[in-house]
């Protein structure tokens, strides 16, 4: 019986290392690949979505071969490389035999991705097979049943089947003694021609693994070298692939020398930075110390800031963007843009104050509104927050804020905060729920108070001060303990004769509307609620009243 290699059974034909893709039937077992796995030939490749669903492998043999080259550069064995390739790109993209063909070429330093595989029409001998691939085949045979005609033991005494018996004997013995486990290829990576098609394939493969852009870039640099591609080019292709565009076309001249940002004129850098969103500007501060100083002198583009600190959470708002910091015992739960993140070891108060202080340090900051709320009661927690706030506003030296709202502060603390705001620029002061009355007399001597145009206090913010102190404002809305007939005379003789006055509202828990109205209309005989018109020599006023409110509006 002729037992030449040409008479081998179908399962034995894998012993001939076939380089021509298309030899062997589809869906046959490939030794050296994971067991019980079937593969299709490379010639029938159909594009498949990557498992993460982020990108789709392009219908290009070059792209597939580039991914194989990239796996080789990681220093893996062919089996490990193939398994990782299938996990990331998908099963059925390329069969193990074809994968091994390209992997072996790259291992020997041949990185020609455009090689015409049809030139390899003749089967290559087992002697030319890489030692690592031989080991995989023999390991597969050794794993079969001892009674199987395919066991490697069968071939140890049949030299006629193996012209390369002497080359295999040592490997077979190593496997039997289990003294030589499969080791990764340790040959040094040989230099390759850095063309964009190859680099694009590497980027595609990293993109398929769903790492962030920077993580993917660092991983690729570790594999092929830091000078293979610049980060900005890597980012361009990465974003392009993520968007579903697998073409390698671009109008950008990537070889053109790019000037660094440090070489740009300051005004150009400023124009670029001004186009960033607030979060991006804050991130740019962390790049370097010099950039931090530059960003702190750049218009940050915020007009409204609100910081509210409660017992279990803090709320920080920049214009319409809101950040919520929630207390989670020793951690902090961060809510931003409908996304939630748990910050291990974070404190909801410290984190909010820090983020607020970063923006407040901006030297060009000009706010329309600043709202500060400490709803903590009188506690050590309150004191620490208040100390931090006053420290931040003092560092700013002279804050440009048009309207300030303070809630939960004592009057002495209101004074300490207000004195850091630029007089004249501060037009409106709003006090909500200040506690205690100590220090209220300090407010009326401040330039910030004297030059403000509008003042408001909440209903439970009772101001124990002479009524004349409100006459300097063009608009005010205040709460008093009471309103006397003498106060009404001062309103008529001084307030209503002021050219700046527009509107004033007094809220009281105890006053006689009839007594007050008789000052503006002799022998008033109406009820305790309603409205009347008052005229003096120059102007006309409308007075609205009830048992708790007395409002005057200048009409002409």
Automatic annotation (TrEMBL):
Which PANTHER family does UniProt cross-reference here? DUF38 DOMAIN-CONTAINING PROTEIN-RELATED, UNCHARACTERIZED C.ELEGANS PROTEIN
Q: Which domain of life is it from?
A: Eukaryota
InterPro entries tied to this protein? DUF38/FTH_CAE_spp, F-box_dom, FB224, Mos1_HTH
Residue stretches making up the F-box domain: 264-304
Q: What is this protein called?
A: F-box domain-containing protein
Q: Which organism is it from?
A: Caenorhabditis elegans
In terms of SMART domains, this protein maps to: FBOX
What is the primary gene name for this protein? fbxa-172
